TrEMBL record:
Catalytic activity, EC: 2.7.1.71
UniProt key word Amino-acid biosynthesis: yes
Record text on cofactor binding: Binds 1 Mg(2+) ion per subunit.
The protein's name in its UniProt record: Shikimate kinase
Protein encoded by which gene: aroK
Xref: PANTHER family: SHIKIMATE KINASE (PTHR21087), SHIKIMATE KINASE 1, CHLOROPLASTIC (PTHR21087:SF16)
Organism: Psychrobacter urativorans
Protein's job: Catalyzes the specific phosphorylation of the 3-hydroxyl group of shikimic acid using ATP as a cosubstrate.
Amino acid sequence: MLEELPSVFLVGPMGAGKTTIGRLLAKYLGREFVDSDWYVELQTGADIPWIFAKEGEAGFRERETRAIDELTQHKQIVLATGGGAVMSAENREFLHQRGIVIYLNAPVDVQMSRTAKDKSRPLLQQPNPRKILHDLYRVRDPLYRQVAHIIMPTGHTYPRHMVHQLLQQLASFSTSPTVIPDLKLSEDEL
Ligand SMILES: Nc1ncnc2c1ncn2[C@@H]1O[C@H](COP(=O)(O)OP(=O)(O)OP(=O)(O)O)[C@@H](O)[C@H]1O
Ligand SMILES: O=C(O)C1=C[C@@H](O)[C@@H](O)[C@H](O)C1
Ligand SMILES: [Mg+2]
């Protein structure tokens, strides 16, 4: 089922749930899951706050583009991208041309509540993270929309339900008829 589907790439702002939903979606599709943020960290041998501190955002973006070019060439993976990946026209081209792009669209309030306690996002380590999220959303929302094949709002929907809705939408990209059965995931994945 959905075997012939190309790679699936998730885009969207910090806290939209790209990593969370991507991991579950990959599990259901029986595919490898990769997160471009983790991949950049692995390739660098350092975490994102360290890369921003030593190389600036520009250094991180160069590494991110190399990672996205490499990872989008894999034929059947699920890839969660960093929140700022769509800022690069090159990345947008790689994503849109090489797979099915899903935009997880979360309102700023939701992004805020999901990122508040986590210190791993350097752009939000400022006195007013809400304003930053708001400003980033204004600039990036049109770019997420431009690159996306599917747009999925993620407000107060359980990850499991989101994955089910996504599978139904992905089925329309499949060339063979597809039935989406109920998802059988454990309680901690709901
Ligand atoms: N649909 C959801 N319902 C409730 N909580 C969620 C949902 N999706 C994600 N979360 C929670 O929100 C937090 C952020 O999610 P996640 O790390 O997946 O976001 P992200 O889009 O990958 O962010 P980033 O761009 O910074 O990597 C996590 O603690 C996760 O458990
Ligand atoms: O929105 C952004 O620009 C970022 C999001 C994260 O996923 C990381 O890629 C990094 O913290 C930058
Ligand atoms: Mg993530």
